[in-house]
Amino acid sequence: MASPLTERQRRFVEAYMGAANGSATLAAKMAGYGSGSVSVSARASALMKLPQVQSAIAERAAADPLVADRERRQRFWTQVMEGDGIFAKAKLVDRLKASELLAKSQGDFVERRDHRGSLTLRVLYEDESPEPDADEAPE
């Protein structure tokens, strides 16, 4: 179970979900994380990794009807792409963009490479240089 938020962490979450519009760095500044030896962006990054902060953000997002979850976004993009209902007169460029966003959200454009197979490395060492010929004069 995640520990409870401190007052500054609570202010960070409030700012992140509100006035900072999802900018962790701006939210950290607004919550008072500006002084000290650690930069605001580093502090914001650290805050976003805390389980209690992640949990608080997830709870806020689930409770906020204005925040669309993945399924809701995908339903919207599908309606635009197919030209359903109010999107019947959507331009082709908008329908194509919706299909692209839908495909990206489902991982269709992930480039996969097969790295299996054998790999042969030839290592040369400086101290294993060939022996000079006997008839060569030393330098």
Quick description:
The protein has 139 residues and is mostly helical. The chain has helices spanning 7-17, 24-30, 40-49, 51-63, 70-82, 92-105.
Describe, in plain words, how this protein is organized in 3D.
The chain is mainly α and 139 residues long. Among the domains are: 7-63, Arc Repressor Mutant, subunit A; 70-105, no CATH class. The protein has six helices and no strands. α5 packs antiparallel against α6 (92-105). The mean pLDDT is 83.
Mind sketching the topology for me?
Layout lengths: L6 H11 L6 H7 L9 H10 L1 H13 L6 H13 L9 H14 L34
Helix pairs in contact: 1-2, 1-4, 2-3, 5-6
Structure class: mainly alpha
Task: State the separation between the terminal residues, measured CA to CA.
Answer: 73 Å
CATH class of the domain at 7-63: Mainly Alpha
Question: Care to count the β-strands?
Answer: 0
Q: Give the overall average pLDDT.
A: 83
Describe the sheet with the most strands. none
Strand % is under 5%
Number of helical elements: 6
Gyration radius, rounded = 28 Å
List low-pLDDT spans: none
Features of the shown structure:
139 residues; mainly alpha; Arc Repressor Mutant, subunit A; 6 helices
